[in-house]
From TrEMBL:
Monomer. Residues 2-71 form the Translation initiation factor 3 N-terminal domain. IF-3 binds to the 30S ribosomal subunit and shifts the equilibrium between 70S ribosomes and their 50S and 30S subunits in favor of the free subunits, thus enhancing the availability of 30S subunits on which protein synthesis initiation begins. This is Translation initiation factor IF-3. Keywords: Cytoplasm, Initiation factor, Protein biosynthesis. One of its GO terms (cellular component) is membrane. PROSITE patterns: IF3 (PS00938).
Length: 164
């Protein structure tokens, strides 16, 4: 809320340089803001009495958007990369896939390991869990299992994340 939008009787006023001016009626605070050719902006509406500040509103909005952009730049997005395996995978192929997953984890991404069953392979689901266990074992030096292997339809999935 700015200027005439403020409907409170009394407010705690902060000056343009950040100094505490005290508690004033809104009309008096508005007059002080107009005298300084600035705006009266409500900063903390939940406080008793509400806190208002004499500042240039356009500059204030610009600073807020700039801070939000800076915060967004510092955020790190984590992608989920998928590695697909089959129950009759050979050890060399498993090592190749685990090296791919190692690269993904080094970049800071999560890895979803999917073991897909097709046709008659569904009869040997219990015997195939060791493939995912071996995969996690190969990457145990840099990754931990975030979500244990779990059957979802015709596939068994497991999630790996970087060790802290």
């Amino acid at each position: 809320m700015i200027n005439e939008q403020i409907r409170d009787k009394e407010i705690r006023l902060i000056g343009e340089n950040g100094e505490q001016l005290g508690i004033f009626p809104v009309k008096e605070a508005l007059a002080m803001a107009k005298e300084a050719e600035m705006d009266l902006v409500k900063i903390a509406p939940q406080a008793k009495p509400p806190v208002c500040r004499i500042i240039d509103y356009g500059k204030y909005k610009y600073e807020l958007t700039r801070k939000e952009k800076e915060a967004k730049k510092k955020q790190k997005t984590i992608e989920i990369k998928e590695v697909r395996l089959s129950p009759n995978i050979d050890t060399n192929d498993l090592m190749t896939k685990s090296n791919m997953a190692r690269k993904f984890i080094d970049k800071g991404d999560k890895v979803k390991v999917t073991l897909r069953f097709r046709g008659r392979e569904m009869a040997h689901v219990a015997n195939s869990r060791h493939i995912l266990d071996d995969f996690a074992e190969n990457l145990s030096d840099i990754a931990v299992v975030e979500k244990a292997p779990k059957m979802e339809g015709r596939s068994m999935t497991m999630y790996l994340v970087e060790k802290k």
